[in-house]
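Chain X:
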Amino acid sequence: MDETRTGTTPTEGLAERRWRGTASRTAAWAVITALALVAAGIPSAAVAASTSWLQYGNGPTHSGANAAETVLTPSTIGGLQKQYTATLPGIADSPPVYLAAASTPGGIKDLLFLTTKDGWTVAVDAATGSTLWKHQYGPGSCRINNGAQPCYTTSSPAVDPNGTSVYSYGLDGRVHKYAVGTGAETTGGGWPELATAKPYDEKSSPALTTASAGGHTYLYAANGGYPGDRGDYQGHVTTIDLATGTQKVFNTLCSDKTVHFTPANDCPQVQSAVWARPSVNYDPATNLIYFATGNSVFDGTHNWGDTVLALKPDGSGVGGGPVDSYTPSNQAALNSSDQDLGSSSPEIVAAPSGSAVKNLGVQGGKDAKLRLLDLSDLSSQGGPGHLGGELQLIAVPQGGQVLTQPAAWVDPASATPWVLVANNSGISGLKVVTGAGGRPQLSPVWKTAVAGTSPIVANGIGYYLTNGGVRAFEPTTGRLLWSDTSGTVGLHWQSPIVVNGHLYYADGSARLRAFGLPGAAHPVARVGGADRYAVSAALSAATFSPGVGTVYVSSGALFPDALSGGPAAGRAGGPLLLVQPKAIPSTIATELRRLHPAKIVVLGGAGSVSDGVKTSLGAFVSGGAAAVSRIGGSDRYAVSAGVSRLTTPVANPVLYVASGENYPDAVSGGAIAAGSAKGPLLLVHPTSIPSVIRAELGRVHPARIVVFGGTGSVSASVATALKAYTTGAVTRLGGADRYAASAQISGSVVTPAARVYVATGTVFADALSADPAAGTAKGPTLLVTPHGIPSAVAQALTRLRPSSIVIVGGTGSVDNAVQAALQAYIR
């Protein structure tokens, strides 16, 4: 009915971004390359671009797989060393989450966030372990077990996909919203949001989860009971629309009542629970959320004990029940023997090649079984309320209850999907294969008897915590690659995360531990590819998680339409992907399948991106062709105005202007417009303001205007004319050439910078793709020559003092000598 703890070893954990689909979906991994820095004597490791771990499992599917990791490899993992041990204000019985390049009063920093059992929310500088801010909503007078102990939580926080807010559960029964950099709490507009009206009986056991679907971003908070299966709790999921603050409640008992139960307005059925580590998993392929319940009654109408449930992303069901459900045929026996099905959450896994079923999930349980389910028809009988119907039912290879969350991973070498399961009896690896008649099935491959918490996979290495230490292993064989015995006594639901070459975890003694490689933990990275389209796809894969709200698409043959679109994409939290005028390159198609965005915006008219391409893009969004729109116009200036008109409110604080006749100033400025000071980028003639741009300037009427480029790009007379459209200043960021202008524009970035992007100044394509990623990191895009670093750019790098640098493009664009030279500028 709720979590239990047996034996001496932990049982629970974490997971990250899942890679769904067949072999083609792993192609994006191959185009993210890290080149050796031989000239500088630096290891060949490289950090992926702007990688964050925003929630439990590193994404709404909670796979536990970080495909963007490049620093820690099988050849470098042996050098992993402890970097610090930080003291927390309480025990965090859950994994941390990680936000790259957060704006703080002390500059741009990578931050870790944790929720402690006694209600602290803590922000920690990931580089040093120092506490940036903390808040507590503690137990107060809330007591459980007849007053024997204070109320507590095992929840994990979640960072908003836009990177501005972090959400955390408090012991007042509410979800609280804080500014990531300062900890300032949002109050009003529904915040703090109610998660339970009975915090003395109901506990937020799982992590908070966010997912974006249909143009909305939702936050999910699940509740169960306390260990011992006592008290008045029904198990429910609260879904909060982050744009409006409105919420829906789905109760797993008395599901026809969509309210937070109180003792005065209650359900007669009790003691179901939603307590698995991820709370809910969102599958963009089915556009549904999934979760499982603990023991209680089942009637297939309004009471759903020991059941996997599917809801719409907004948290609603159908007819007083779920959209779909799976309930084991022996549910009554599970209930009577306290063998919760919902001790884990349905892990979404990729379908193997040739599978007749494309949407798969793996459900564990206290009965030591694994169930393979069809997520598009959970019971294989159509709709909710049925018993049985799993695709496969097998014993856990190492035996024992599954109270942890499995990891789902696709081996890029073979395109084979894998499931990793750890528990009190050990850990095992299972392939997902295709059997007779195209029926998918789990095939156990290896197991070991070293028990532990929920595993994760990063760059082909598995990780998990045990009471004997943290371990790194080969996920296809279980072979041990590295271990450390630090701080793993007294574990429960804690599990590790691996991001940007570092391993982090909280332990059972109120400590946060960090591991990294000595010396070159943050070398210069390269995101390259066979052509501009592969680079565009690779950078998106290294930066953005599946389920983004909007993807912008532009021609990779010409630059004008994309100049304004790149900043708009970054402001929307998604990438700018390049296509051919009449075709979608295979690497871009692979990345679009992975992203599965809510909508796609095509930049430019049919001459830039054909109607045929626009129609084909409908296959990559859940809403089909209707979710693909076009911003066109008679020329590049009309497109620029159209982008601003659809994305920028009246009286925006700032607006940027650049020449539409050439790209360098606009691509350097695009990163600033996308990130550190958000605003639209409008294109002008060098000596005049087109009428369509004048109209848009009059509509927005910004507080100030910034011109990118010198007077040769945008004349003094144009800058003077711009003063009529703002009540504030018109300033210019320019230089003697494109490189000096790029350096001057980067002066808008707060120092020290967490991440700087570098691209060639001689070709437009790579820099265009870089701007949304740079905006996400709140860093600049600096231009270099293919074979050198111009002096103005070198001076800018010295001022910026970045903790990491990412080159966008292959060695033909920026050669290895430049990559080696850039290492000197990393702090």
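Chain Y:
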Amino acid sequence: MNRFSGTIPPQFGNLTKLIYFDLSINQLTGEIPPELGKLRNLETLHLVENQLNGSIPSEIGLLTSVREIALYDNILSGPIPSSIGNLSNLVNLYLFINSLSGPVPSEIGHLANLVELCLDRNSMTGHIPSSLGKLKNLTLLNLFENKLSGEIPPEIGDMTSLDSLTLHTNNLTGSIPPSLGNLKNLTVLHLYLNHLTGVIPPELGNIETMTDLELSQNKLTGSVPHSFGNFTKLQFLFLRENMLSGPIPSGVANSSELIVLQLDTNKFTGFLPDTICNGGKLENLTLDDNHLEGPIPKSVRDCKSLMRARFTGNRFTGDVSEAFGVYPHLDFIDLSHNKFHGRISGNWDKSRKLLYLIMSNNNITGPIPPEIWRMTQLGELDLSTNNLTGVLPEAIGNLTALTRLKLNGNQFSGRIPEGIRFLTKLEYLDLSSNRFSSNIPQTLNSLPNLHYMNLSRNKLEERIPMGLTKLIQLSNLDLSHNKLNGEIPPLSSLESLEKLDLSYNNLSGQILPSFKDMKALIYIDISNNNLEGPLPDIPAFGNATAKALKGNRGLCSNASKQRLKPCPVTSAAIKKSKKKDGNLVVWILVPILGALVVLSGTFTYYLKKRKPRRTEDKSDSEKGESLSIFSSGGKVKYQEIIKSTKDFDPRYLIGTGGHGKVYKAKLSLGTTVAVKKLHETTEITKQDFLNEVRALTEIRHRNVVKLLGYCSFRRHTFLIYEYMEKGSLRKVLSSDDEAKRLDWVKRINIVKGVAYALSYMHHDRSSPIVHRDISSGNILLGNDYEPKISDFGTAKLLKTDSSNWSAVAGTYGYVAPELAYAMRVTEKSDVYSFGVLMLEVIKGKHPGELVSTLSSSPGTTLSLRSISDERLRMPEAEIRDELLKMVKVAVLCLQANPEFRPTMMTIAAEFS
């Protein structure tokens, strides 16, 4: 393998006796020279994995001796020349992973010796030409991931040597031709992700050699042909997301080689075939969202190979303790929304790799067996909406990996166990609709990641514990329909809280004025308590219906729609209304000045805490202002910064952002630094300055840019950073040459580095920091392409004594929806921006409208090819898997509802 660059010299066309020409896996650019058409003796042409662009020259049709052409993994565009039909000796044609457009030339049907034809992962349009049916020697036909339309020509059935036919991910319509049943040598047939209609032709069952049949995500109707029982070698059968009906033929499971069977999201009825796992190799079984019924076959109970199983949304019956066995490789099982009965088996703890155990919405009874509390690897336990009884033991605290615990809708009694405090990864807790009694444990304050908690419809008593006020991630809290008493505690620290239901309790006293700090709150129900006094003046109460406030005799409000008695006008209120403007100004200025004093004190405290060696320098003219340089190389003077930038001459300008301009400064000690000079020192930019200093003096992470010093003079306000040689990620991606050097491995490492830094900022600090402006312009790269997050001018510390209600911040195209319309700051705002950034890294440019599409349609699937940077060749399998994982995570990050986005801790763990 070489690393040639530049263009292919046209002089190669003079080597008329050349037989073999291979320039693969280089960095060649430009077009394929038409002079290569002179190589009449050439038998092999390989230009694979370069960055060749332009169209395929029509002169390629002059290579009458050529047997193999491989131009895949380039950036070739335009149509395939029809002259290619002249290559009568051609055996293999590989043009996949390019940007070719136009129709598949019908002239290809003239290539009688053709054995392999791969035109996949391009942008080809039009119909599949029927002339391809003439290719009697063809064994491989790949046309997948194009934009082909029309029907599958029945002539394809004449290609009797075909071993693999992949037409998936196109816009094909019509029915599956019965003539495909003539392909007696076929092992792979992929037609998924098209718009095919009609029934599955029974003739497909004639293909006894079939190992991989994938017809998912079409509009197929009717039943599965009984002839599928002929597939004795079948390994993969995908029929999911169609409109298939009727029973599943017993013959479907005849193959002893079956590994994956996906039949979900159809209208299948009847019982499962008894032989569904007789071969002992079945790993993936998905049957959800059908109308299946009856017991689970013994072959499934004994299926030791099973890794993932979904039975949800059917009518399966039987004793759940007897229907399922021990599965050493199982990591996911969902039995929800069926009619299983009996008790939970103690054997589940023998499935050592099980991460998700879901049995909700059945008729399961009895206590949870103690063996369940030994499953320390469990990430989700959902036993909701059954008839389970008993007391939850303290051993529940053993499940330290749990992120979701749903036990609602059962008949559990006794106290909520204190052991729940050990479930520190828990994000979702639902114990509602049970018979829990006594008080709410104070120790629930030990769940720092909890965003949903529902304890409603129990028999909980006493006061709401103060410990709940420490659950600062909480967005939904429901304590309704209990016997709680006392006053509502100060919940203002729950700045992420959106929904609060305290209805149907015995709460009393006034609603604290501190509720006004809960800017995220959009829904509240306090009905049927003994509360009194005025409602706080916030939108959640202002928009509350009369139903959400009723049953509190002492409440008052002057809003007519709430149907409460009016609040009395006090003498203090009358006096307040008569204040003159001067007094009003005083009342406004006093808290503002007080806040500035506190901020200044906090700022000084943070700087004093900082321990690196530091020098200070104040010129006479700048006395009373501040300059602090943190440096390991000795004293650095203010004048040296001015001198090295020639008083911020534009020649030294290396970047401009929303908060200031960045200059390159080479100091006398040989150190190069970046100096960010803030725009005119308005109050806003002073705040940006303080935000950035405060944030960066607190952060110690390899993927966050280092602050080396700062200056705040009347003349200048600037920050001094370590210098990042490559500049911003946006700059690198905007340059074709730089972007090509930024290969897939480097891009993956950039995404991982940013993920680790954000996880640290959000989860590994006592006061989380939200950046609020994650974008490619704020990710800086060093010579080794190690990423560092910069520009903390809009950063916000999420503390229990500060508000999450904020002005809009961020870069257009990266701002989370809730910041755009509600101005509510949480870590999930950064998660959204990170999702945009991931797609930008893969695509090589901002994903544009794709962002809003994914945000509004979270079920959208993306192919890697459709969003990959065309300047890079498609990656090898291992790297491709990493990129596909990134795409899936990005889609999750772009969910419109912040509650459904993953945390950066979860994302960082996924990338570890």
